[in-house]
């Protein structure tokens, strides 16, 4: 019987949860859920100068927002330093590691000599086979792994296939510093082993690390986990993803108005596929997910595609849930006027949302589209809408306002009928009446149906907004 799958997501808390890390977490989560296994969370906080509590909280917050839950309590790597050191000393006892007393000056000299000889600048194994009695007095050593001097290190990878590293190209890297603290290479292996990790899914920038880590696994006689090294995300131009492409923190996408289900869908397609499916639920992704479906080629980040997918999920969302997201987003990005307007006009916003949802691709666009409901008079008129408000159209608005004033039935059907009769009497197409009305009542050229707008804001507010524009004729 095979062991249950255990994956892990292991970010460094030196900043926000960036989009590449979010995708790595998603793949680990999806695979663990697909197999009925577990995903563990490990915070690799050994860089004490750069690791911060705020960054750790940002990682937790980003994962929760994305809906990627983890199993058990998060593990903080720094708190396991004693265990890492214990394994380093066990490797010493096994003859798989050794103490090195080289000074920084000696190491620099080795690197220079290697460069002069046209070789990679690295440690030359000076202390590898020396007698411990030659150790200088008062010098705290580092501990180095004994890398194999010949043969091959083979990484059997679910994405990259069989990757072979020549042993002669590996150096005796440090696993324990002279102050007794572990290096990243050692800590990762010890933690993955102790946590029972069966599958390591991470970026392909770690592929060379895999060969070094296998040396440690072999030195301890531990089983090497299955590995899947996924290509990094690139920008639309094919270059490595940077901030100008969209390499932002997860919270930035939340603030820009993307829904978590849209982000999960989009990120899944950056390096994984299921036929030609572009839109799929999270449950479908979990059901279909396999490591063998991960792509070997680098995925390209495309904001247009992300917006289109987000637009789909906005159209599908329940208005009550969407309203809460709009309010939370307005609060997070400090749009105080919108917070007040949305809070005070909940029922009207909810009634308008089915009309607004097909017109928006982000939550911020939804908020902008809803502003007509609670905008303060006189309405700000944007540039495109201002073009609809000529002297002639303002005169027409004044005439139609009188028709509206006489309506006893304030319904979409009654207003629509009145507008059609008014346009026909003047020899106008309905759009020539509706577009100036939209500009006057919303300040925009895009809104829900203009007769629906009138019902939503009410008769008196409609007449007052129209009167503001008529006064400017």
TrEMBL record:
Domain (Glutamyl/glutaminyl-tRNA synthetase class Ib catalytic) ranges: 5-307
Keyword ATP-binding belongs to the record: yes
E.C. designation(s): 6.1.1.17
Subcellular location: Cytoplasm
One Gene Ontology biological process: glutamyl-tRNA aminoacylation
Keyword Protein biosynthesis: yes
Record-annotated Aminoacyl-tRNA synthetase class I anticodon-binding domain positions: 343-468
CC terms in the record's Gene Ontology section: cytosol
Transmembrane segments: none
GO molecular function: ATP binding; glutamate-tRNA ligase activity; tRNA binding; zinc ion binding
Record-listed ATP binding positions: 243
Catalyzed reactions per annotation: tRNA(Glu) + L-glutamate + ATP = L-glutamyl-tRNA(Glu) + AMP + diphosphate
Locus of motif 'HIGH' region: 11-21
Key words, A-Z: Aminoacyl-tRNA synthetase, ATP-binding, Cytoplasm, Ligase, Nucleotide-binding, Protein biosynthesis
Motif ('KMSKS' region): 240-244
Function: Catalyzes the attachment of glutamate to tRNA(Glu) in a two-step reaction: glutamate is first activated by ATP to form Glu-AMP and then transferred to the acceptor end of tRNA(Glu).
HAMAP family in the record: Glu_tRNA_synth_type1 (MF_00022)
Family: Belongs to the class-I aminoacyl-tRNA synthetase family. Glutamate--tRNA ligase type 1 subfamily.
Quaternary structure and partners: Monomer.
Record's protein name: Glutamate--tRNA ligase
Gene behind the chain: gltX
């Amino acid at each position: 019987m095979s062991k249950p799958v255990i994956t892990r997501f292991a970010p460094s808390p030196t900043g926000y949860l960036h989009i590449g890390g979010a995708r790595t977490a998603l793949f680990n989560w999806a695979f663990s859920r697909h197999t009925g296994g577990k995903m563990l969370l490990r915070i690799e906080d050994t860089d004490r100068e750069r690791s911060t509590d705020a960054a750790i909280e940002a990682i937790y917050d980003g994962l929760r927002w994305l809906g990627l839950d983890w199993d058990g309590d998060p593990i903080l790597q720094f708190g396991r330093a004693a265990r890492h050191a214990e394994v380093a000393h066990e490797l010493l006892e096994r003859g798989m590691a050794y103490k090195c007393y080289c000074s920084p000056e000696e190491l620099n000299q080795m690197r220079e000599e290697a460069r002069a000889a046209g070789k990679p600048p690295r440690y030359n194994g000076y202390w590898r086979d020396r007698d411990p009695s030659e150790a200088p007095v008062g010098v705290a050593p580092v501990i180095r792994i004994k890398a194999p001097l010949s043969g091959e290190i083979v990484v059997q990878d679910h994405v990259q296939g069989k990757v072979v590293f020549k042993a002669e190209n590996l150096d005796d890297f440090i696993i324990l510093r002279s102050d007794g603290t572990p290096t990243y290479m050692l800590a990762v292996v010890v933690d993955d082993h102790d946590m029972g990790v069966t599958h390591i899914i991470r970026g392909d920038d770690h592929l060379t690390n895999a060969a070094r880590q296998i040396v440690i696994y072999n030195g301890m006689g531990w089983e090497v986990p299955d590995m899947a090294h996924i290509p990094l995300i690139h920008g639309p131009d094919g270059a490595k993803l940077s901030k100008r492409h969209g390499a932002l923190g997860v919270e930035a996408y939340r603030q820009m108005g993307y829904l978590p289900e849209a982000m999960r869908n989009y990120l899944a397609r950056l390096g994984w596929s299921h036929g030609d499916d572009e839109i799929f639920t999270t449950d479908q992704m979990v059901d279909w997910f396999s490591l063998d479906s991960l792509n070997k080629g680098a995925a390209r980040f495309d904001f247009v595609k992300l917006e289109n997918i987000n637009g789909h999920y906005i159209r599908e969302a329940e208005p009550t849930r969407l309203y809460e997201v709009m309010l939370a987003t307005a609060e997070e990005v400090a749009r105080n006027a919108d917070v007040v307007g949305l809070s005070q006009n909940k029922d009207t916003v909810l009634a308008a949302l089915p009309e607004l949802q097909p017109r928006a691709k982000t939550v911020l666009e939804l908020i902008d589209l809803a502003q007509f409901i609670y905008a303060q008079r006189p309405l700000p008129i944007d540039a495109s809408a201002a073009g609809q408000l000529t002297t002639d159209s303002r005169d027409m608005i004044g005439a139609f306002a009188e028709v509206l004033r006489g309506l006893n039935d304030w319904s979409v059907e009654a207003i629509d009928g009145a507008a059609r009769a008014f346009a026909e009497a003047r020899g106008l197409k309905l759009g020539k009446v509706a577009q100036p009305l939209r500009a006057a009542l919303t300040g925009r050229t895009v809104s829900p149906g203009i007769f629906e707008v009138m019902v939503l804001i009410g008769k008196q507010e409609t007449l007052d907004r129209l009167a503001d524009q008529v006064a400017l004729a």
